[in-house]
Amino acid sequence: MASPFILQTERLWLRPFAREDVEVLHRLWTDPDVRRYLWDDMIIERDRAAGEVEDSIASFRDKGFGMWVVLLAGATEVSGFAGFRLFGSPPTKKELMYGIAPHLWGRGYASEATRALLRFGFEKLDEERIYARTDPPNAASMKVMEKAGMTFAGRQYEGDVELVTYVSENPRRGTGYVPPAIQLD
Fold first, then answer.
1. 155-172 average pLDDT score
2. Is the pLDDT of residue 180 over 60?
3. Of 73, 102, 173, 177, most Cβ neighbours within 10 A?
4. Is it the case that residue 184 has pLDDT exceeding 60?
5. Domain coverage including residue 49
């Protein structure tokens, strides 16, 4: 029986993080081009990557969402990651995050994964709103959000870090973006 958390699009497969993903995710997350905005250019330790994987596994078990690895359809090599984490005070808002291996940038994979997760968040989690945030210099990430149909919601500070926020509203709860059809099972 297939996991209810496996997502498939025309070109991608997304599956929840698994313990065997730690090494490949650590390599991706310490790539200079990826970590620049994801980890504020910090080189994280392998234990931090393992902790992120364990947190995601627990989140799927306890909350029905977490982080997925992104694979090109039919491939076994991890090409990126995408998923949800909570933020806010208290942490109740869902933030959509994503990252694709640099050698695959510019092909629309991040936008495709983002649309799949928006659909999952609205249809399976019945979220009212889903947010995505990035550092102001990360124009490529803002373009991904816009291509996925998200709307600019403003700039704000989290501590001393400035963030640009985009939002997507659940189309079943009012007006908003409807991502193209994808297979959710």
1. 90
2. no
3. 177
4. no
5. 7-173
How many whole angstroms from its chain centre is CA 92? Answer: 16
User: What average pLDDT does range 65-86 have in this prediction?
Assistant: 95
> Does residue 178 lie in a domain region?
no
Neighbours of 6 (CB within 10 A): 14
Nearest to 148 by CA among 123, 116, 122: 116
pLDDT of 181 reads 45
pTM of the model: 0.89
Can you tell me the mean pLDDT for 131-142? Answer: 94
Predicted local distance difference test score (pLDDT) of residue 55: 97
- Tell whether 80 is covered by a domain: yes
Q: What gap in Å lies between CA 75 and CA 73, rounded to an integer?
A: 6
Each as own residue / partner, the long-range contacts of residues 102-110 (CB below 8 Å, 24 or more positions apart, any chain) are 102/31, 102/33, 102/34, 104/79, 104/80, 105/140, 108/147, 109/11, 109/12, 109/70, 109/72, 109/79, 109/80, 110/80, 110/82, 110/141, 110/144
- Asked if the structure places residue 125 within a domain, the reply is yes
- The answer to whether residue 184 is domain-embedded is no
Q: Is the dihedral of CA 163, 164, 170, 173 positive or negative?
A: positive
Residue 174 has pLDDT above 80, yes or no: no
Domain count along the chain: 1
Strands 151-158 and 161-169: antiparallel
Q: Specify whether the CB–CB gap between 177 and 149 falls below 8 A.
A: yes
